[in-house]
Amino acid sequence: MTDVPAPVFLDCSSGEPLLPEARDAWVLATSSGWGDPQRLHRPGRLAAQALDDARSRVAGHVGARPDEVVLTGPLAPTAQAAVAGLALGRRRIGRTIVTSAVEHSAVLGAAAAYGEHVTVGVDPLGRLDLDAWTAAVAAPGVALACLQVANHEVGTLQPYAAAAQACRDAGVPLVLDATTALGRLSTSDLGGWSVLLGWAGAYGGPASVGFMVVRRGTRWRAPFPADDHQQGRWPGTVDVPAVWAAAAALDAVAADGTATPARQHALVDRLRRGVAARVPDVDVVGDPEDRVPHLLTFSALYVDGETLTLELDRAGFAVASGSACSASSEHPSHVLAAMGALTHGNVRLGVTRTTTEAEVDAFLDVLPRVVGEIRSRLGVA
């Protein structure tokens, strides 16, 4: 059987490959015989200590208290619970839920399901209309607002500190999604949020682990039947080895400082310039500077995104297309639509912590040929 070379992985927008530090931590945890953290025997006490330590480490990275950290699961159910819990806790205030138009689909879906959803638009770079946001959160009957630190699809940073201040001035709690920023930007002071969301898969931890940090005094109520775990804030037994691995991954990326993000920023700059220069009729979107370091999205005219993704995969490059929240590339991106950009023929790149300049140059060498062949088959070359 002939070995097939592994593709160059450029789909870090959907999750970073598991870091060695996370894998080692998981192996250590599973081999230590840690038990149920609610038990009083030694394995149970070890598990409880591990969870307490993990909460402390996460809290330190996001400027919170350990007892504010709720260990959860993947991002979608975590985001849904954050929105639903605040809507429940604030139901006497009103039912309006304000979000940007480019939030994660789980946030948009929860806002529509648990209240009267109001969306605030963005400019062509994907940045929030701050004046419209300020007016929206100041309206009567607003229960909560939701915003990302940075968009998970085009990478544009949002004016999250100013948006949080507008919420604070209006007395409205803010759910801040820090998923895309963790491990890439400083997250110890992200403004006056009330609930912060994170997901370990985004920074090289286990994809099964997320967290919801609920500030003390926030009127969040569990939107599901409570049990004895985590003071009734998240149901079910915690996967201790996975949580330990998630904390180890966050420690590792934080310890790396600015070196890897700076290198990734330079690689995406190289991709941005190369795509624009080498491929005719292409729209490179998002803010070129004020962004997270690892993401780039572009759209090629006259080309179907799914076809382009498959052809690039055959050429040895794993990329994404369509909406970053969708399991199928056939769904147009609501983010690009909100920006007024092309929603078809788009490719989303996410460079990993180990992506090299040689891999980026190889992608830029292959891309014009692949796009040209697809256009030629369609008769638009």
Automatic annotation (TrEMBL):
Residues 39-363 form the Aminotransferase class V domain. SUPFAM superfamilies: PLP-dependent transferases. Keywords: Iron, Iron-sulfur, Metal-binding, Pyridoxal phosphate, Transferase. The keyword Transferase applies. It catalyses: (sulfur carrier)-H + L-cysteine = (sulfur carrier)-SH + L-alanine. Gene3D superfamilies: Aspartate Aminotransferase, domain 1, Type I PLP-dependent aspartate aminotransferase-like (Major domain). It comes from the Bacteria. Its cofactor is pyridoxal 5'-phosphate. Belongs to the class-V pyridoxal-phosphate-dependent aminotransferase family. NifS/IscS subfamily. This is Cysteine desulfurase/sulfurtransferase TusA family protein. It comes from Microlunatus spumicola. The lineage of its organism: Bacteria, Bacillati, Actinomycetota, Actinomycetes, Propionibacteriales.
